[in-house]
TrEMBL record:
<protein>
    <submittedName>
        <fullName>Helix-turn-helix transcriptional regulator</fullName>
    </submittedName>
</protein>
<dbReference type="InterPro" id="IPR016032">
    <property type="entry name" value="Sig_transdc_resp-reg_C-effctor"/>
</dbReference>
<keyword id="KW-0238">DNA-binding</keyword>
<keyword id="KW-0805">Transcription regulation</keyword>
<dbReference type="InterPro" id="IPR036388">
    <property type="entry name" value="WH-like_DNA-bd_sf"/>
</dbReference>
<dbReference type="Pfam" id="PF00196">
    <property type="entry name" value="GerE"/>
</dbReference>
<feature type="domain" description="HTH luxR-type">
    <location>
        <begin position="25"/>
        <end position="84"/>
    </location>
</feature>
<dbReference type="InterPro" id="IPR000792">
    <property type="entry name" value="Tscrpt_reg_LuxR_C"/>
</dbReference>
<keyword id="KW-0804">Transcription</keyword>
Amino acid sequence: MGMDAFSRRAERELSATGETVRKHTVETGSQLTVQEAQVARLVREGLTNPEIATRLFISPRTVEYHLHKIFGKLGITSRKQLRR
């Protein structure tokens, strides 16, 4: 299918940005990704989903997705809890 070539290209592009690929393990499963941490920080600053989406060049729906993942990883259920 050509996935090996795609994988190598993605790895080169990530390397060029200084990022690395996180290995998914039991230990990293509860850690926030870089994108999730950015969303969480902007929520704590009081921004709305559309404002966060604009800042991060993603859709508001993607912000909602990240918030869902953040809430699960942190064991919380609201933006209010995240601000604390």
